[in-house]
């Protein structure tokens, strides 16, 4: 039996992990232990550990370390606190794992990984080799890759970047495609009526799905960026229903939260959601006319829903994307105009991040390497 740990710090990584979690839970060859921390345990961010438990998973550990503040000092302090708490956790439990998965590029994920290094925890990184020049996550992603033994990437070009980062050839870099796209084949989505009953949002109305996170490299520009997107969304709300999902716990995140909450008071057409969960988020994406923002879901999943995406600013700069992604600056007039240009168009290309059943590929690799 292989004892597998899963580090999950947010709604975003949990949604991507989900097909792998289900596959590991169903395979008697594995003992699954989910380690929950970060915004999952924050009431302010929706306490999304509830979603994990509602899906039938029992967390092995819950480690609280998130501070509510969004200043650089608060982010740095949260990193330090997370590393400190995980120092105790790994000290007590590092022998309980044969391999531990760390997904993505979040600062709190990097802190948990940093604390594991002296204990020589064998890590598996999902998804290294990518580039997001407008976010400090770019640094954390590379750090997690450097700390890991196994590397599961989404495209062959990302595999080459991991090889270059490591500075050596290794047989433990695998192109498996995007786990999140497996959700689209296995997760039953809600009907429009079911969605309306659950959220009070009628997707029969032409809808724009919006997710905007702060830019954490040029974070001093967020005030201006926030103003530009707010002006565009308020104008668009006169013609369309605007559904906004709240940003991550990042530097300047509160700036966007407060502005979006204010927008929802100015227009009944603007709806604010803290956390949809994977099923409802993909349902909203399916029935929306277009996506606007700077989130990775716009880069990865939207093409499989045949949606165009207006990707704003530099947060995802340098990242490989499908042809449905339209890159724009934070400029209210340009955003407004481009929505009307693309909202009635359907993307009919392929999704470069798609591979068949990546969860089963990962499981086979783990078994073959034991």
TrEMBL record:
InterPro entries in UniProt: UDP-GlcNAc_Epase (IPR020004), UDP_GlcNAc_Epimerase_2_dom (IPR003331), WecB-like (IPR029767)
Gene Ontology molecular function: hydrolase activity, hydrolyzing O-glycosyl compounds
Gene3D superfamilies referenced in this protein's UniProt entry, alphabetically: Glycogen Phosphorylase B (3.40.50.2000)
Pfam families in the cross-refs: Epimerase_2
Database matches in SUPFAM superfamilies: UDP-Glycosyltransferase/glycogen phosphorylase (SSF53756)
Transmembrane region(s): none
Signal peptide: none
Positions of the UDP-N-acetylglucosamine 2-epimerase domain: 22-367
A single BP term in Gene Ontology: UDP-N-acetylglucosamine metabolic process
PANTHER family attached to this UniProt entry: UDP-N-ACETYLGLUCOSAMINE 2-EPIMERASE
Name assigned to this protein: UDP-N-acetylglucosamine 2-epimerase domain-containing protein
